[in-house]
Amino acid sequence: MTKIKITVNGNEVEIEKDSTISDFINERKVTGKMFAVEKNLEIINKERYDSEVIHEGDSLEIVGFFGGG
Q1: How many domains does the chain have?
Q2: What pLDDT, on the 0 to 100 scale, is given for residue 69?
Q3: Collapsing DSSP states into helix, strand and coil, what is residue 34?
Q4: Taking the model in full, what pTM does it have?
């Protein structure tokens, strides 16, 4: 399959072309329910993860939320 380059949390990575956000999250084993994904400065609603395709040159930020005091 064809690979594309994207930026994730400031680091360049290669992923399969036509991957969705869900594909990326599953491949990278992102766990937990308390995280948000921003694509090209837009926060992506979790309902869109299955349909939101990542393209060459896109930038993702994945931010986790932690409780505590």
Answers
A1: 1
A2: 62
A3: coil
A4: 0.88
Predicted confidence (pLDDT) per residue in 32-59, tens digit:
778 999 999 999 999 999 999 999 999 9
List C-alpha distances in Å: 45 to 2, 37, 56, 69: 27, 8, 21, 28
Q: What CATH number does the domain containing 55 carry?
A: 3.10.20.30
Q: Which two tokens stand for residue 7?
A: 């930026």
CA–CA distance, 5 with 12 (Å, rounded to integer):
7
Range of the domain at 43: 3-64
Distance (Å, rounded) from C-alpha 32 to C-alpha 24? Answer: 15
Entry field: residues in the chain: 69
